[in-house]
């Protein structure tokens, strides 16, 4: 148990930044809980709670990466029950981050006195309490699933690079917090179903994690059989060298992987702007993360190919468009289908869908601009763009919203995309590969 | 007929922010040269190679490859340049065969037969996934990829750091084959001094950002010697030894390491100490150590 | 055929030079004997072919080796005694150096050394 505790503490405090975030998070959560005891819950307290949870998330954003590397590490295999301890530490971390929000919020509702009405009857009170308990379980299980999914996303991002992942994780997590708060205002009655779903997902994940070392050779053999011996020669790869080198060769991985959050979100209720924001950030973040590596990966491509750096930029850009078109295409069709099924207001769809496209485009060009490592100007620009996108989404979802304003803002963002493209192109013309170096040690290798 | 240099650099310098990594380097690499670059960790070997390949712009001076500035090499020139980086740039999800085909698609003069032979001799399984290969195997594959290009300029950055002695010897033999062609030039940096000693005809020693030595390996070995001084009456307090790198006094004499040693200097020294002086020539590793004392 | 030590302080080309000279002088490499090609020797010892080539060229200039277009280098048919005295003396200079040094260390005078040398010469004549 001590080892598990040690691991969890490490997840939350591995860097000075992580320590700061975790500490701030804990402080805010405790403060909001205390405030709930002393005063009636207000919106400000709710926001403080959410910001605290967000800070905790960011503080633990290295957890997926560390867990993955420890799981693969040779030395860890000698630790007794090493894998189980790792798994437990991961699950506990998810709980630590997922439960404060529903816990404190429900506690606040519990504390809510009704100063003007008559004291409630025991029956009313019992019903109120049971309603709250139901709400807690439902919210908690959804929060756990979302938290788990977010960590998976984080793993995807951070296994490529750590510094960028930190800042992008911030955007993803801050947005997603809207979901639990929305859920609190519209509790669903299918508690048992929620809890079972949560339990089942966690169980499947745990089992897979524990038996993975035994499964791996089997999977390899299956892959070997289905791969079918000799592959066809260069003709198959023709024209896709750029894609392979940049990591954009398999858009279907991401396109189909979107199904999970779609399923999750459609259960919660699609009418909230938070859901749009969720997709917006999630996919633009992923697109940006992949694009952010393009510069350093293109060094070999430049040396081998007959392109100047400006021509190389055009090729790289095209490769990303090829990738993003498929991912976005699937997403837009999905969202459109669900939107029609749920009978969402047409205006919301009309504003929300382009926003997601804009998010991906802007994020891609921002990523392509990262030719000198992720520094303050790029990070600030990224955060500013994210905040603007969020604001537009909120505006678009507001009933009776000003659609002309939304349209104008989206137009301005489209213009910004053009400007960013020019900036990225200019940077690539002068690219210096000694400055694109990221921490190569983060790339995991198979044991020798 | 004058052959034009493969690489030409004049007053090349590179600084990262306020930190000067390389200072005022001027050199030429001619076709047929095998240049071994030696230097301590952090001396700037990788930066020098990156400057030569156009990966980064020089802060001062210029460097050109086959007559073109390295930052603006046209495609025809880049085709003739091969590079084996210190950390491989292989694609994990691919199989060896796919990776070979991928790189081959860039080069019309790809030597498939050579690549097949090397994969066979070096025990690289074409069906293996790169993701599951060890560091040594990946490094071997990176080297094979460079050889398959049949480059006229081959630049290698610590190419054998992860290879066992057998693999290193196989790699050396292949480089010997390559350098037998007098039109090709090789520049490689390595910690493994013995490999450089076998293969290089020119040595560059990078020390504190400058080329401390830049010349033939043979001349280097003839220039830097260890002198064993024997003097029955004890050594005089003040000794004037030209080109002195280090001096260690012992019972009945001293050991000195000098550069630019000549017979005349030896006779002069013998006269000075009224004793005898024996010159011992040093291997490259000893020379490197003495230069960095 | 040759023993080359790349780690030695003596450059590889010089080691090869010395060995070929000695083998030719001692008769181990008779006139007309073919030497390994530059490429073969370089591959065998895993050394730069240019260093082999340098040694061969120098030997050719000294008249010890002969080059034939398209065929391996051979030992020149001219007897080594045709080479200039100074060149031949250069051959044994290192041996003389060693003898002189050893003599000094053992505190043998020049005259005594010369006498010993003369004795050796007489003895080898009798063989």
Could you write a compact summary of the structure shown?
The complex is a heterotrimer of chains A (448), B (293) and C (127). Chain A is mainly α and 448 residues long. Chain A is 78% helix and 0% strand.
Number of strands of chain C: 2
Shape of chain C: globular
Nearest-integer average pLDDT of chain B:
89
Number of domains of chain C: 2
Task: Work out the strand percent of chain C.
Answer: 5-15%
What CATH calls the topology of the largest domain in chain B is Rossmann fold
Task: Extract low-pLDDT stretches of chain B.
Answer: none
> What's the SSE pattern of chain B?
EEEHEEHEHHHEHEHEEHEEEHEH
What can you see in these coordinates?
The complex is a heterotrimer of chains A (448), B (293) and C (127). The model of chain A is unreliable at 160-171, 173-189, 227-238 and 439-448 (pLDDT under 50). Chain A has 20 helices and no strands. Chain A has two domains: 2-112 and 125-214, no CATH class; 239-438, no CATH class. Chain A is mainly alpha-helical and 448 residues long. The two termini of chain B are 43 Å apart. In chain B, helix 4 (112-121) runs antiparallel to helix 5. The longest helix of chain B has 16 residues, at 165-180. Chain B has helices at 45-52, 75-78, 96-104, 112-121, 135-148, 165-180, 193-199, 217-223, 263-273, 284-291; strands at residues 7-16, 19-29, 34-39, 60-65, 68-69, 81-84, 153-157, 185-189, 202-207, 210-216, 225-230, 244-250, 253-258, 276-281. Chain B has a six-stranded mixed β-sheet with strand order 6-7-8-3-9-10, with helices on both faces. Chain B is an alpha/beta fold and 293 residues long. Chain C is mainly alpha-helical. Chain C has five helices and two strands. In chain C, strands 1-2 form a two-stranded antiparallel sheet. In chain C, a hairpin with a 2-residue loop joins strand 1 (65-68) and strand 2. Chains in contact: A-B, B-C. Chains B and C meet through helix 6, helix 7, helix 8, strand 14 and helix 10 of B and helix 1, helix 2 and helix 3 of C.
What's the SSE blueprint?
The complex is a heterotrimer of chains A (448), B (293) and C (127).
Chain A: H1 2-13, H2 16-38, H3 43-59, H4 63-72, H5 82-98, H6 100-110, H7 122-158, H8 163-176, H9 178-185, H10 191-227, H11 234-237, H12 241-246, H13 251-257, H14 259-268, H15 273-292, H16 294-304, H17 309-341, H18 346-369, H19 376-397, H20 403-429
Chain B: E1 7-16, E2 19-29, E3 34-39, H1 45-52, E4 60-65, E5 68-69, H2 75-78, E6 81-84, H3 96-104, H4 112-121, H5 135-148, E7 153-157, H6 165-180, E8 185-189, H7 193-199, E9 202-207, E10 210-216, H8 217-223, E11 225-230, E12 244-250, E13 253-258, H9 263-273, E14 276-281, H10 284-291
Parallel strand pairs in B: 3-8, 3-9, 6-7, 7-8
Antiparallel strand pairs in B: 1-2, 1-4, 4-5, 9-10, 11-13, 11-14, 12-13
Helix pairs in contact in B: 4-5
Chain C: H1 12-26, H2 38-45, H3 49-62, E1 65-68, E2 71-75, H4 85-105, H5 110-126
Antiparallel strand pairs in C: 1-2
Helix pairs in contact in C: 1-3, 2-3
